[in-house]
Design brief:
22% helix; 3 helices; 7-stranded mixed β-sheet; alpha+beta
């Protein structure tokens, strides 16, 4: 019998930092503001298609998701390679949508995360897709994106660096850890994307 070794504390810590950094890159690529040295994320790009739900936001519907796809199609984006990206709150709202026969539109017990489909297109879920947007009197609204993500570029330079400083706060008994990753994010063709930014989920 072969026993699997338990990861050391260094490996656990490194894995945690890698996960945090990946989530932040996700957030910047999708929703970076373009200010204060942030890249401009997909939903803040000039030229992407926009679909509105209501003056103060509203509930997501299948019709609105199809409108997202149409926005990319009429701008000659590559709809065939398109995918939907939503956050966990919006995925939950989508999971509760039913047709006129009471059947769920999104298979509740279907494929695992990352292999789901919506309107015959991939459905990806990440909390890098914002849920803190405002519109009118609506707050904590979510975004949904449809697009050809091969037109979203993330360039990295070098490897992620983890620097441990055991001395600066030695008297306090604490250790500082700094994580650095040099990268840039760009959208090659803004018309390859469309977004809803007022989902009340």
């Amino acid at each position: 019998m072969r026993l699997q070794s338990t990861p050391g504390i260094e490996e656990v810590i490194r894995s945690g930092f890698v996960s945090i950094m990946a989530q932040e890159i996700d957030r910047a690529a999708l929703a970076g503001s373009g200010a204060s040295n942030q890249p401009t994320g997909v939903i803040n790009q000039a030229g992407i298609g926009n679909v509105s739900i209501g003056t103060n936001g509203g509930s997501i519907t299948m019709d609105k998701l199809l409108d997202l796809r149409k926005e990319v199609a009429i701008d000659n984006g590559n709809v065939a390679n398109g995918a939907y990206v939503v956050n966990a709150k919006t995925e939950n709202a989508l999971s509760q949508l039913k047709d006129s026969n009471g059947q769920y539109l999104l298979p509740v017990y279907g494929p695992e995360l990352g292999k789901q489909q919506l309107a015959s297109r991939r459905l990806m879920v990440t909390n890098g897709c914002p849920s803190n947007l405002t519109k009118g009197s609506g707050t904590n609204l979510s975004a949904a994106i449809f697009g050809d993500f091969s037109d979203l570029y993330v360039g990295t330079w070098g490897e992620m660096e983890i620097l441990v400083d055991q001395f600066s706060d030695f008297a306090k008994g604490t250790t500082a850890v700094r994580v650095l990753q040099s990268l840039d994010i760009a959208v090659g063709h803004a018309q390859s994307f469309a977004a809803i930014k007022d989902i009340n989920a």
